[in-house]
Structure formats: C-alpha cells, structure tokens
Structure of ABC transporter ATP-binding protein:
Amino acid sequence: MLQLEHVAISYGTNKVVQGFDLTLQAGEIGCLLGASGCGKTSVLRAIAGFEPISEGRIDLHEKNVSRPGFSVAPEKRQIGMVFQDFALFPHLTVAENIAFGIRSLPKAQQRERVDSLLTLVELQGLGDRYSHALSGGQQQRVALARAMAPKPDLLLLDEPFSSLDTELRGSLATQVRQILKQQGITALLVTHDKSEAFSMADKLGVMDQGRLLQWGCPATLFSRPASLHVADFIGKGATVKVEYLGDGRIAGDVGNWPLVSNVSVASGTSLSLLLRPHQVKTDPTSELKARVLRQIFRGADYLYELQLPGGELLLSSMPLDCEFSPGQSLGLSLDLTNALLFDAANGHNVLLESQ
Ligand SMILES: Nc1ncnc2c1ncn2[C@@H]1O[C@H](COP(=O)(O)OP(=O)(O)OP(=O)(O)O)[C@@H](O)[C@H]1O
C-alpha cells in the first residue's frame, strides 16, 4: 500500500531524513515514534506530497508518487491528514466541516456520508454545533471524520492527540484505532508518546536524527530491540556494564550470571545489560546488595531507584507491601529470562534467537 525506499529529505543543504525505508500493508496502522525534531513530520509531509524528496522513492499502491525531481500533487494522492491543532474551520458547523472535502458530491449523498461519520465518531446530534462549543476530544473526532469523508486510501495523523490531556489522549487513541480498524483504513501516525504508539500501532518505528532505527510489530520492538537506543526509547529500564565471560555467562557489579540466550560476541567483550524494573526483585538471601535511593509511588506499585556498591543504578518495581526507605540496603535477585544485551561499543543488540 505504502512503500518508502531509501528516502532522503533536505531543507537546503540540511539533510533531515536519510536512508528511510518503510512498508505499510493495506489496513495496517503504522506509527513513527521519536523525539522532537527527528524528522517525523517531514516524512509525513513527503508522503502527502507537500515536501519533495532528494533521494529514494515513495510508492502508493505500487505507483511511484515521489522521486527526486518528480512529485504527484497532494490532491491527486487520495491521502487524508489529521493535524495536532485540529485545524477545523471556525465559521463552519461540525457537519459543514466534515462535508468540506466532499463538496462536489450531490447534497443528499453528502448528508448521508456526514450522518454515518457522525455516528462513527459518536457525535450524533452535534452536526449543527460550531467547533468552539466542542471539547478538545470532540474537535479531534470531527477532524478525523473530516479527513475520512472523501474515503482516502491512506490517512496520515500528525501528533493528533498531543494537545489533549493525558487521560483523554489514551482513550481517544483506543477509540480512533477501533474506528480505523472497523473501516479498514490504512494509517500512519507520528507521535513522541510511547503509550499512544503502543495502543495504536500494528507496526511501530523508532526514529532518531532522521533515520528509522527499527520498524516492526510493537511486541518485537519491545522484546527484540535492535539497539540500546530503541530499547531505551520504548521502555523504562537501567543499563549496567557487564563483560561476556564466554560459555554463556556474564559478570559485572551485578554478579556472575548464566544467560538464557546465545550472544554473538567473543569472550571479554564489554556489554550493556538492560534491566527493566520488573526484572529486579528483592531477595533477602541474595549476596547482590543495593541501597535504596528513592521510592516512587505509582498507584499500583512502587518504583525503587537503587544503587549498587560500585555506583551503578537499577530500577525495580515492587508491590505496595514492599516498603523500603532511602538509605536502606536490600538483597536483590535478577530475572534474566528476557535480558537484553547490547555491545557497549556500538549499542547493537548482541543476542541471538532464544534457544
Ligand atoms: N521548512 C523547514 N525548513 C527548514 N528546516 C526545517 C523545516 N521543517 C523542519 N525543519 C527541520 O527539520 C528537522 C526535522 O523536523 P520535523 O518537523 O520533521 O521533526 P519532528 O520529528 O516532526 O519534530 P516535532 O516532534 O518537534 O514536530 C528539524 O531540525 C527542523 O528544524
């Protein structure tokens, strides 16, 4: 449905996106996740036809729409867009906003489509309102309905929920996913919010400085991140230095541990071991000790910041009945079943497939 091959985007001499490959199948929801300024919006604008590309190609339905020196006009691409700031027309009612892109259809057909979209986004009865009389979440659902009205082949969503409060953002992301799935719409969303990305995406990509570091299903990115940067970006954790001893063992300030998976490095290699909070547990009988630095109440559990005697930090999530105070020393056990290991020199994942 959508294919980007080795795409580069430049503003003058400044290349802000490079070597960008991405494939989205029909009906899939893709999501680009990355810090501010990494090039997410530029990629969306290039797909929509608003930005030329300086290298590579963009194909829609296996037809080339962008290559250096050539670009099919945005209005000929059958692409709908939803932006961060809703961008509804204030002088038009909700129904008129939704009908904006289908003005050329006969009136009766327009009304029918607007009514079915109002039902779809659960705004029945609000067709005559103006946007200032709607909540942020309602406005964003109008923007979604308006983008869907012309039945686009592809919907691009640029940080569509970022101006809403956290709770509304979460529930709207789930609703929007349901609507897109129900209608079989192919969509690409950009965001810097991990939870939004996880609740929306069939395929997820992490971008950094204009490059797509990894593209795959969210579970794969979480459990098999290609690099420490991807792992760090998509989930909380702490890294500690260890050395690969050979024979499937690692050692460092966290002690000497056997690995469940094989690694692709020689003995003596310096590695970074990423430990997520659920992998670090209290064990009074353990020789591995750490000092409590901070206890953070998270509602359903505590997050503890811990320090090993050598100075390295660990994070641990513990149930609410595990009450420890700053300064206290704890025995720890580590669950290395799904441990993530990266080459300390280049940050690449060194784990081979689990045995
Ligand atoms: N029209 C432009 N002219 C020159 N530079 C631009 C232009 N648009 C974006 N840039 C630069 O390109 C880089 C990527 O910007 P882009 O908006 O694509 O990033 P982003 O990941 O979407 O950021 P954000 O999350 O903050 O919206 C940034 O360094 C930005 O300053």
